[in-house]
Write a structure and sequence with these properties.
The structure is a single chain. With 187 residues, the protein is mainly alpha-helical. The chain has a single domain, classed as Endonuclease III, domain 1, CATH 1.10.340.30. It contains ten helices and two strands; from the N terminus they run ααααααααβααβ. The two termini are 17 Å apart.
């Protein structure tokens, strides 16, 4: 990690945050498995800090079948009970059940659009990522009309724990909205 490199201020000096910022955040995701991982993690984050989830990422990977959407969609009540005992993840029954239900809806979207990535790109102007030109972290919104629209559509499709703020964070993480600051080396 090179401290001379200018980064977005939100990542601070925490090694988890810095690595995540430098290697993943804002890089375009075109792989549905990676997209599902982000969706699981972002929806688990609802009401919590992102670092709480990021520090448990490997535990989530193990708990949720390496983010294999088909396996997660097939989880049963026994799996829910197993996950409720897993101290490596957030043990919130509603979030766990939503993850399983969201996997089912994720697969439905894949069938309808060819991939979940295609579905998300369909909301973007000309299907291309939005590149914002923020100079300060305080300028970055928590949600936008785009995240409002997508989260409403996903809610209609049955998704849970994916409101507009979580949706916007998801779009940023997956590179569908590039909110790296203009001064950031990774812009």
């Amino acid at each position: 990690m090179n401290d001379a490199i200018e980064r977005c201020g939100w990542c601070g000096n925490d090694p988890f945050y810095v690595r995540y910022h430098d290697e993943e955040w804002g890089k375009l995701v075109t792989d549905d498995k990676v997209m599902f991982e982000f969706l699981v993690l972002e929806s688990s984050q609802a009401g919590l800090s992102w670092i709480t989830i990021l520090r448990r990422r490997e535990n989530y990977r193990k708990a949720f079948a390496n983010f294999d959407v088909h396996q997660v969609a097939g989880f049963t009540e026994q799996d829910v009970e197993r996950l409720m005992q897993d101290s490596g993840i957030i043990r919130n029954r509603k979030k766990i059940e939503a993850t399983i239900s969201n996997a089912v809806h994720y697969i439905e979207i894949q069938k309808e659009f060819g991939s979940f990535c295609n579905y998300l790109a369909g909301f973007l102007p000309d299907g291309k990522p939005i590149v914002n030109q923020w100079q300060h972290v305080r300028e970055i919104p928590a949600s936008t009309p785009l995240s409002d629209t997508i989260s409403k559509d996903m809610k209609k499709r049955g998704f849970k724990f994916f409101g507009t703020t979580i949706c916007y964070a998801h779009l940023q993480a997956a590179g569908y909205v590039n909110d790296h600051l203009t001064s950031c080396y990774f812009k």
